[in-house]
Amino acid sequence: MRLIKGKKIQLGLVGGGPKSWIGHVHRISSRFDNQYEIVAGVFSRNSQLSKRFGQSLGILKERCYSNFREMAEREAERKDGINVVAIMTPPSSHQIIAEKFIDKNIHVISDKPFAGNLAQAKKLFKKIKSNKKIKYALTHNYSAYPMVREAKVLVEKGKIGKVEYINVEYVQDWSDGENISQKNAKKKFKWKIDKNIVGASAVLNEIGSHAYHMATYISGLKGETIFADIKQVSNKVKMDNNAQVMINFNNGAKGMFWTSVMARGGVYGLRIRIFGTKGSLEWVQNDPNYLKLNPSNGSVKFIERGFFNAELSKKFSRLKFGHPEGYLDAFANIYREFAACLKNNVKKRYFYPNEDEGLETAKFIEACKVSNRKKRWVKIK
Ligand SMILES: NC(=O)c1ccc[n+]([C@@H]2O[C@H](COP(=O)([O-])OP(=O)(O)OC[C@H]3O[C@@H](n4cnc5c(N)ncnc54)[C@H](O)[C@@H]3O)[C@@H](O)[C@H]2O)c1
Question: Were 113 and a residue from 24, 205, 265, 378 both cysteine, which residue would form a disulfide, CB within 3.0 to 4.6 Å?
């Protein structure tokens, strides 16, 4: 769908109803930089609830649809129809929804994971590549923090030498301080306990995908072989809730990766450390405006977002250094760059994650499942 000159990018939403917090994040972030206008949507499978919610956001009644199929058909028929759809439904529906809009030449911004499982991911990847009229962005939002992108270019410039080791951990506590049993699990975890909805693996699709993406995004490497142990910490509930993975990367580097949704005690943290022949880099999501550069022959440097020696980070910042930016700002970077890409349509470098990274991550998750089952090293393919 063509952009209309002088008009903001017309955005439609699928998912992100009243109780979804990521829905709120998308709605705010998409409007951070005045590039998008939310004009259509379907927010729930319950069409009454969806329409009521859509109208409460100020969307015209006739553009609050009953389901995503109707939305794609009707929006494609309109002269002022949406240019972009943003998808924020549970994982196993991402493929089918994205494909419907791609068929109507509508660009897609989708929340992660790319798809529910590898079979879906391969189909979606093919569909995206087969339509030259559309562009696709995946909201692996942690990679959009200015200092994460700064880290990526520091690695590219050889500041830490050849990457030799990567350590990532992304842990959460989904228990809310309760003891989880078969009885309360469904209420607590909702669709995350249902394989048909969450897809290949709850912990890996929900947060492991981010962790693996961060490792490959900053280092520029790909995983080649892995050994995974996906342990049910509590075997009362059938849900992948913890994964530890050893990785061999394609330049010979090694990696260790831990992700858990039952790291009890309110722990919440994404941390990545990358070690090279000349030093190391460390970034922690809870302190996102700083990147730690630790040269092997000197003292530790804390590089601050937006400061003179963090040139690239300025491009992805809105506030001056010293004033903290956070999650929403980073999320908005994906929307802002995607808008620039659609408007300029020039072959310059964009940093937002796309379908290539989505497929890579789906392959990694599938390999983890196979390795865990066979209890041996497997190739990521
Ligand atoms: N990028 C991030 O940091 C991040 C954070 C949280 C969640 N997510 C991702 O966002 C997605 C949604 O997660 P959530 O936690 O918000 O889930 P949720 O269950 O809280 O919200 C999902 C919303 O989608 C709606 N929905 C479901 N199927 C639909 C359909 N077919 N059509 C229209 N609406 C539909 C539901 O009514 C609900 O409002 C998941 O893929 C999840 O991994 C990403």
Answer: 205
Tokens of 138: 């995946």
Coil, helix or strand for 345? coil
CA angle 26, 271, 357 (to 5 degrees): 55
Query: Does 101 share its domain with 134?
Result: yes
**How many angstroms separate the alpha carbon of residue 84 from the centre of ligand 1?**
18
Kindly report the pTM of this predicted structure: 0.97
Torsional sign, CA 68, 69, 72, 78: negative
For residues 198-227, give the mean pLDDT. 98
Does ligand 1 come within 6 angstroms of the Cβ of 92? no
Q: Is the CB of 42 under 6 A from ligand 1?
A: yes
Look at ligand 1, atom 13, and give the residue with the nearest C-alpha. 90
Query: What type of residue sits at position 23?
Result: G
Ligand 1 proximity of 88 Cβ (cutoff 6 Å): yes
pLDDT grade for 353, boundaries at 50, 70 and 90: very high
On whether both 128 and 169 belong to a single domain, the answer is no
Q: Do the Cβ atoms of 175 and 264 come closer than 8 Å?
A: yes
Q: Is residue 209 part of a domain?
A: yes
Of 34, 205, 191, 218, whose CA–CA distance to 118 is shortest? 205
CA pseudo-torsion sign 258, 260, 264, 270: positive
Q: What angle do CA 47, 92, 85 make, to 5 degrees?
A: 60
Of all protein residues, whose CA lies closest to atom 14 belonging to ligand 1? Answer: 20
Domain boundary, last residue among 141, 161, 189: 141
Is 169 a domain residue? yes
Q: Are strands 84-88 and 107-110 parallel, antiparallel or unpaired?
A: parallel
Q: Is residue 340 part of a domain?
A: no
Q: Which residues of 306-336 are buried (b: 16+ CB within 10 A; e: fewer)?
A: bbeebebbeebbeeebeeebeeebbbbbbbb
**DSSP three-state, residue 298:** coil
- For the cut 80, the answer to whether the pLDDT of residue 236 exceeds it is no
**154 and 80 in one domain?**
no
Among all chains, which residue has been given the structure tokens 């808008």? 339
Domain extent, residue 56, equals: 9-141
